[in-house]
Each structure stands twice: as structure tokens, then as C-alpha cells.
Write a structure and sequence with these properties.
Layout: H1 18-49, H2 53-80, H3 89-107, H4 117-149, H5 153-181, H6 191-214, H7 235-243, H8 246-275, H9 283-287, H10 292-308, H11 310-327, H12 344-383, H13 388-417, H14 441-469, H15 474-490
Helix pairs in contact: 1-4, 1-5, 1-6, 2-4, 2-13, 3-4, 3-6, 4-12, 4-13, 5-10, 5-12, 8-12, 8-13, 8-14, 10-11, 10-12, 11-12, 11-14, 12-15
């Protein structure tokens, strides 16, 4: 049977289609195969298997700061690289980073529980730094690549939506499968098995990246900005350009709000379901609402962007999110009278509010990465140079800072309200969680209000970033795209 001929566009490139979207989704699936392993197993491995309970919190804070700084460093290296690669500069870096992730991810889980403490600290920090370097080498160019696959707003919306799907699957697979592989029959963590699993997941991530690289078509020609006649790359000037890049700053403010509010709220949600709703088992089911709108909206993203525009859609999403967060105030404000043991109606309202918020987040998340692709073009439009690496990496830098600030802020507020984790170790030296059900009802109501406030802060920051700072509406985006096309054609 003869192969179906490849359809080419006016510039001789393979026409954009579902192949591009699935390939781009595979890239974030590859990233999250490694990232989710770090988030789900690393704390347990280093506290339970390696016995670094007393040191882990301090070490992870230091490494999180490095994690955030590392992104702009790698971004500047990528942007300063003027070498002409056969397969494209960004794809070459992704290929190299994906190889390193196979080994780097496993180095974070070297099982030597009998080693002295100083050796464990060295192993932990060295493994994390190596893993983080390779992860960033792959992830920063991957995020920047969206702006080069297509310049069409609808195509970018499709890529952004499918990236959300790849991220979601990449996070869910480790969460579902890992518990079946890395625990012993008695419930303890199997250190050597964690190491082997990290190697296997690194290899799976590598295969995902290879699939993406093989099926990625670069349609935006930026070679005119990457030749030897260009002035030497100036990192300070590039960072200044980022701060003057309104779309990049607006998208970053929105993302920071999302992480500060949502990550902070998630820290308090589990305790809220324990002591306020007194039904911790359904907390996970309620949180699944956050995934449904992404799946539902993905097939609609392309048509919706063509009709309304990315900025316009994202503003609608942020307003819906704020509305949902406002509904969460119903019980704390006394609109729904609630007393201890009678929270049934409020639970229904909580779920309704989560559904409204998830609708808003689903709309925003499916276009958020496409908006950063447009922000990269905006930098070229205004200052004449493409700085994909530094624009995306600084965006990632602030996102990662927010990921750390959100939970820390929530814990600090909870501590001020009276939540104290004063657990003592058991006979085996393992710290036990305090019985939060013994906390007072007044504390439960205050915590319930805190969750709503944190979600509301997230929505307001998203609206400010997207509605007041981000300035690429549908009309302006069309003008920018036309002028960039004219410049590139002239060159």
C-alpha cells in the first residue's frame, strides 16, 4: 500500500496537523516522567531510606533556590550559542538533555543507607544538581520551541493545549504506577527498586523526546537572527528586554499567581478535609475536577482562539476562576450557616466552586504556553532580536520561585493560626503526623477561609497579569505577526 503523500504549505514545510501537537505533547510527557518522580518519591526516599530527615528540609530549600537560578543560566547559554546545527539548535539541546536525564534522574536515588551523613549529603546535592542541569537543558529549549513550530495563533493554541495533556499524563503515570513498583510488602520503600525505576523512567522519557524530535517541523525561520554578523549576546541587556516585554511579564505574573495561590491552597486543603469536612478520603476525588476541563477544552482550543483570541479567552478564564473562589467564601462569611458536623451543604458548594474554578483554569492552561510563544515573538518585534532561551527561562525562574513561596506562605499562615506540627519520632525514628482532628472547630473554619483566600489571590494575580499587563490582544497579535513576516522576507 502506497504511503499517503505529505501535504506541504506555501513555504515547503509539512503542513501543521495533529502530528505536530502529539509530538509536542510527547516532549512534556518526557519532561514530567522525570519531574514527577522527583516530586513524588524523592522526599520519602531521602527521609525513609537514606535517613536524612534532619537535613532534608534545609537541603531542599538550598536546591530549590539553585533550581530557580539554573533556568536563566541555561537560557543565556542557549541564546548565546550561534552555532548552526543540522537539526535546529533547540532540538539539539533537547536531544542532549534527554540523554543526561536517563543518568541524572537515577543519580538522585543512589541507595547507600549505610553511608556516613556527610556522604549522603554530598550524594543528594550532587545528584540533584546534575539531574536539574540536564532537565533544564531539555526543558528550557522545549518551552522555547513552541514559537518556532508555527507562527499561526490557532496552531500555537493547539500546541499549548496538547502540552497540557502531555504534562497531565506525565504526572499521572508515575503517581499511579510507582506505588505498585517501589514498595515492599510491609509498606516500606525499596531503595534499590527506586533506583532501577528511575533508570527505566529516564529511558522512557528519552524515547518520548526522540519521538518529539523526529516529528517536529520548524516552520519559523530565525536564521537571520543567529548568524555571525549578529552582535555578541549580552545577558544583562537580554534580562532588561524581558522586564520590558509586557506579554512575558504579564504571563509570568499570571503563572506566579497560579502557583502561589494554588500550591499554597493545596497545602491547606488536605487538612481542611480532615478537620472541617471530616472526610479526607474524598479530597482527591474533588481535586480531579481540576483535570477534567483541560481534557474537555483541548479539542475546542483551536477554534476558540481563532474566534476570540488567546488574551481574550484567558481573561474570561481568570474571571471564572475569581468567581469560583468567591463562591468558596459562602460558608466562612456565614452565607451558608454551618456548624460542626453539618457541612454537607457547604461541601456541595465547595465542589461547585471547584468546578467553576477548574473551568477557568482549564481555559487559561490550554493557551498559557502559546501566550509565552507570542511573548518571544514580541521581544523580536520590539528589540529586533530573538531571545527564546532567556525569555522562557526567566518565566520558568519566577514560576519556580512561586512554587516554593506558595506552600511556605500557607504553612507560615497556618502556624500563626495555631497549627503546629510537633510530632515525635517513633521507636524506629520515623516522625509521625500529629492528629489534626484534635484541632478546634474555630481553627477549622479559619482554615476553610484561608483556602478560599489563597485561591482568590491566585485568580486576582491571573487577572492582573493577563488583563492589565499582557497586551497582545487578537488585533495586536495579527499586526505583530504581519510585521515580523515582512521583516524576515526583506532580510
Amino acid at each position: 500500500m502506497a504511503k499517503k503523500p505529505v501535504t506541504l504549505d506555501a513555504n515547503g514545510h509539512r503542513k501543521f496537523g495533529i502530528r505536530d501537537s502529539v509530538a509536542y505533547a510527547a516532549g512534556d510527557l518526557g519532561c514530567n516522567m522525570s519531574f514527577a518522580l522527583k516530586g513524588t518519591i524523592m522526599p520519602l526516599f531521602w527521609t525513609q531510606v537514606m535517613g536524612l530527615s534532619a537535613w532534608y528540609s534545609l537541603l531542599i530549600i538550598v536546591l530549590q533556590v539553585w533550581d530557580a537560578i539554573n533556568d536563566p543560566l541555561i537560557g543565556t547559554i542557549v541564546d548565546a550559542d550561534r552555532h548552526q546545527y543540522k537539526r535546529n539548535k533547540f532540538l539539539q539541546y533537547i536531544w542532549f538533555g534527554s540523554i543526561g536525564l536517563i543518568v541524572g534522574g537515577a543519580l538522585c536515588f543512589l541507595p547507600f543507607p549505610q553511608a556516613p551523613v556527610w556522604a549522603k549529603i554530598v550524594i543528594f546535592m550532587a545528584g540533584y544538581v546534575i539531574w536539574d542541569a540536564f532537565y533544564t537543558v531539555a526543558n528550557v529549549p522545549y518551552g522555547s520551541l513552541l514559537s518556532l513550530i508555527s507562527k499561526d495563533p490557532a496552531d500555537r493554541a493547539s500546541l499549548s493545549a496538547w502540552r497540557s495533556i502531555g504534562s497531565m499524563v506525565g504526572n499521572m503515570v508515575p503517581m499511579v504506577i510507582l506505588p505498585l513498583l517501589v514498595y515492599n510488602a510491609d509498606g516500606s520503600l525499596n531503595g534499590p527498586m527506586v533506583f532501577v525505576t528511575a533508570l527505566v523512567m529516564g529511558a522512557l522519557g528519552f524515547l518520548c523526546f526522540q519521538f518529539m524530535i523526529k516529528n517536529t517541523e520548524i516552520r519559523v525561520d530565525t536564521s537571520v537572527n543567529c548568524n555571525e554578523d549578529q552582535p555578541k549576546f549580552n545577558v544583562i541587556k537580554a534580562m532588561g528586554n524581558f522586564l520590558r516585554n509586557r506579554p512575558a511579564v504579564g504571563a509570568t505574573i499570571a503563572a506566579m499567581g497560579m502557583f502561589i495561590g494554588m500550591q499554597g491552597a493545596s497545602t491547606a486543603v488536605s487538612v481542611t478535609f480532615q478537620i472541617y469536612f471530616k472526610n479526607p478520603q474524598i479530597a482527591g476525588i474533588v481535586q480531579l475536577f481540576a483535570m477534567l476541563p483541560i481534557v474537555i477544552f483541548t479539542p475546542l482550543a483551536r477554534k476558540m482562539v481563532m474566534k476570540y483570541g488567546k488574551k481574550e479567552l484567558s481573561i474570561f478564564g481568570s474571571v471564572a476562576y475569581i468567581l469560583g473562589a468567591a463562591v468558596l467564601f459562602a460558608a466562612p462569611l456565614g452565607i451558608i450557616p454551618v456548624s460542626e458536623g453539618s457541612t454537607g451543604l457547604d461541601l456541595v458548594m465547595y465542589i461547585v466552586a471547584q468546578l467553576i474554578m477548574s473551568l477557568g483554569m482549564g481555559i487559561y492552561s490550554t493557551v498559557s504556553w502559546a501566550m509565552m510563544g507570542d511573548a518571544i515573538d514580541y521581544n523580536e518585534w520590539k528589540v529586533g532580536t530573538r531571545e527564546e532561551g532567556i525569555v522562557y527561562s526567566l518565566h520558568s525562574f519566577f514560576r519556580k520561585l512561586a512554587q516554593g513561596v506558595g506552600p511556605a506562605l500557607a504553612i507560615a499562615i497556618m502556624a500563626g493560626m495555631g497549627y503546629v506540627n510537633n510530632a515525635d519520632p517513633d521507636a524506629n525514628g520515623v516522625f509521625q503526623t500529629i492528629d489534626v482532628t484534635l484541632l478546634s472547630w474555630d481553627f477549622a473554619v479559619e482554615l476553610r477561609a484561608l483556602v478560599a483566600i489563597l485561591f482568590l489571590v491566585a485568580g486576582i494575580m491571573m487577572f492582573v497579569g493577563l488583563g492589565l499587563v499582557y497586551n497582545l490582544d487578537k488585533k495586536t497579535l495579527a499586526k505583530m505577526t504581519a510585521e515580523l513576516d515582512a521583516r524576515r522576507s526583506a532580510k
